[in-house]
Amino acid sequence: MAITATSGQQGHTLIDWRPEDPQFWADKGKSIATRNLWISIPNLLLAFSVWMVWSVVVAKLPAIGFEYSTGQLFWLAALPGLSGATLRIFYSFMIPIFGGRKWTTLSSLSLLLPALGIGFAVQNPETPYAMFLALALMCGFGGGNFASSMANIAYFYPKATKGNALALNAGLGNLGVSVMQFVVPMVITAGVFGAIGGAPVTLSDGSQLWIQNAGFVWVPFILVSAIAAWFGMNDIADAKASLADQLSILKRFHNWVMCILYTGTFGSFIGYSAGFPLLMKTQFPDVNVLSYAFLGPLVGALSRAATGWVSDKFGGGRVTFWVFLGMIVAVWGVLQFLPSGDYAGNFWGFFACFMALFFLTGVGNASTFQMIPSIMKKEIPRLMPNGNPADIQRTTERESAAIIAFTSAIAAYGAFFIPKAYGTSIGMTGQPHGALWGFLIFYILCVVITWIFYSRKNAPVSC
Asked: Whose CA is closest to 222, among 178, 271, 163, 180?
C-alpha cells in the first residue's frame, strides 16, 4: 500500500505521527491514540488475570486433593511474579523492534498456554508438583505484557495527557487481578463449559468444584482481544529503534532511582495482590477469604485509573512523596490488627488498613509513571546540549517509553518477593509480621529518595 499525504499511514503503520503538534492531535491524532488505548486495555486486563490466577487456585488445591505444605503453596503463588518480572525486562524492548500491534497480538496469544495448561493439569490428581511449578512460571507471560503495553501507549500520547493515558491503560489493566479474583470463585462452582470442560471434583460436604474453569474461562476472551489487536491497532514508524539504542537507558541514573520508587508502588500492588488471599487464609482461617480478596486489587486498580490527573496537575514527585508516607501508616495499621500471641487479631481492622494500602499503591502507580516523562524532558536536553529539537524530542520519547517499561519489569519482582516474604516469615516465626516490618522500612527509604531527588525545594529534577 502506498503512503499518502492525507493519511500519513501505510497499512497499519503510522508514518506521520506528531502527538505534540496541537493541530495534528486535534485533527486525527487523538482519535487514533484513543482507539489503540481502548484495544490495549482489555488485552492488558486479560494478561493480569492470567498472571495472577494462581493466587486463587492455590487456595483451592488442598480441597481437591493436592496436599501441599504452606511453603509449597506460597511458592506457587510467588513464581508467576518471578517469571513475569524477568520477562518484562525483555518485553521492555520489544515494541520498537516488532511494533505495538504485532507484539500485542503475539503476547496476548501466548496467554493461551498457561490458561489451557491449568485447565487440564488440575483435572488429573496425578499431576506432579513440578508441572504446577512450570505452569506457574508460564503465567508470567501475562506479567511480561505490561511492560510492552505501557511502552506502546507512551508513544501515542503528548506529554500533557500521557500521565492520564498511562494511568487508564495500567489502572484498567490492573483491574484484571480483581476481575480474576471475582470471576474465578464463581466459575469454579459451575460447569459453565458443559461436558467439554471436564468433570467436577466432589468435596466432603457434597459440593462440587470445577477448578479447571479458572484457566478455561479466559480462552475465548484472549482470542477475541488478540484478533481486535491485530485488526484495530497500529505500529508507529518513528517508534522503531534498535536494542542498542534502547539500552542507553541503563546509563541513566534516574532510570535506576525510578526502579526503586516504582517497586515501592507497583511492586507493592502486585505483590499484595498475589499474596492477599493466602495471607488472609493463614491469619484468619474462619473467614471466607475469596469473598473479599478481589476488593484489594479492585481498589488499587481503580485508584490508579482515576488519579492520573492528580499527578498531571500537582506533579508526580509531590504526589509520590505523600503516597509513601501514607503507605507507612497503612502498613503499621495492618501490623496492629494481625493475630499475635494471645491476641486473636481483628479481621476488619486488618482488612480496612489493607484497603487503604491498595488505594495508595494505585495513586502511587499513576504518579511514578507520570514522573518519568517529566524527568526525561529535563534530562535529555541537558545530556544533548548541542542536539537539534527534533532529535531531542525523539530521544526523550524513546527513552521515556523504555524507562517506563524497564521500571515496570524491575517492580514486578514484588509479585514474587512479597508472597515469598510472607511464606519465609511464617516459616521462621509462625507469623508474617517480619515481612511487613521489612516493607515498612523500605517505604521509609522511598520517602527519603523521593524527597531528595524530586519533591523538595531545589530538588535536582523537581517534578
From this structure: 180
DSSP β-ladder status, 13-14 and 235-236: parallel
Residue 305 to residue 261: CA distance in whole angstroms:
19
What is the mean predicted confidence (pLDDT) over 435-451?
96
Query: Is 306 inside any structural domain?
Result: yes
Considering the domain boundaries, does residue 402 fall inside one? yes
Cell output for 77: 503463588
What does the buried/exposed string (b/e) look like for 259-281 if buried means 16 or more CB atoms within 10 Å of the residue's CB?
bbbbbbbbbbbbbbbbbbbbbbb
pLDDT tens digits along 320-341: 999 999 999 999 999 999 998 8
Looking up cell 517534578 gives 463
Q: Is residue 177 part of a domain?
A: yes
Q: E strands of 153-287, at which residues?
A: 201-202, 208-209, 235-236
Asked whether residue 394 is assigned to any structural domain, the reply reads: yes
Per-residue pLDDT tens for 338-379? 998 888 889 999 999 999 999 999 999 889 988 988 898 888
Beta carbons within 8 Å of 262's beta carbon, 6+ residues apart: 365, 368, 369, 407, 408, 410, 411
Please write down the long-range contacts of 201-206, taking CB distance under 8 Å and 24 or more positions apart: 201/63, 201/64, 201/65, 203/63, 203/64
